[in-house]
Amino acid sequence: MVSKATLSTCIALALAFSAWSSTAHAQGVYAGTWTVKATTTPNWIEPTSPAPARPAAIGADVTFSPASVSGDETLACTNATYSTPTLKSDEIFGSGIVDPALITQAHATFSLPQNVQVLRVDCDKGVFDYHQVDAGTLVLLYDNLVYTLVRKTPAPR
Q1: Closest Cα partner for 142 from 26, 66, 45?
Q2: Quick count: other Cβ atoms within 10 Å of Cβ 157?
């Protein structure tokens, strides 16, 4: 018979491993360097919204490392943790699009599937959702711009 203390320890270890495994997997799948290929001002942003303060440059590199995102200072951050939730159609881009027609248009414009897997980066600058278009393309809404990033280096195996 297993004691309550042993069972509690096993459960705690399993939960800790599960959390570590999820973070390691999230970072591992997306690890490496990505390049900003394009920026787009989406049509759901109000015309009176402020222009981006310091947009990342086209061609800038962004690297996902175990505890940070490095590269262009606009997208770089430290103390990063990663997760990979799947968002429903109306949850894309921080649930910032409320008009169903604009949600449909955003999916079409950025080639997003109805249920979108994201690389969620929680770091010193905030929480950022990099929406996965395909294995080599991510899109991120930040400061009223949608950034399209393409994989520069293959994910580590």
Answers
A1: 45
A2: 4
pTM above 0.70? yes
Q: Which residue has the tokens 């490392």?
A: 65
pLDDT at 47 over 60: yes
Nearest partner of 119 among 104, 129, 109, 108, judged by Cα: 129
Residues 6+ apart with CB under 8 A from 54: 73, 74
Structure tokens at 5: 């203390």
Q: Which amino acid is at 137?
A: T
In 3D, which of 39, 33, 30, 27 has the Cα closest to residue 62? 33
Give CA separation, 44 vs 48, 98, 109, 124, 128, in Å: 11, 9, 12, 27, 19
Query: Among candidates 18, 27, 19, which has minimal Cα distance to 155?
Result: 27
Secondary structure element (H or E) that encloses residue 30, with its range: helix 4-30
Is the Cβ–Cβ distance between 30 and 130 less than 8 Å?
A: yes
The pLDDT confidence band at residue 1, using thresholds 50, 70 and 90, is: low
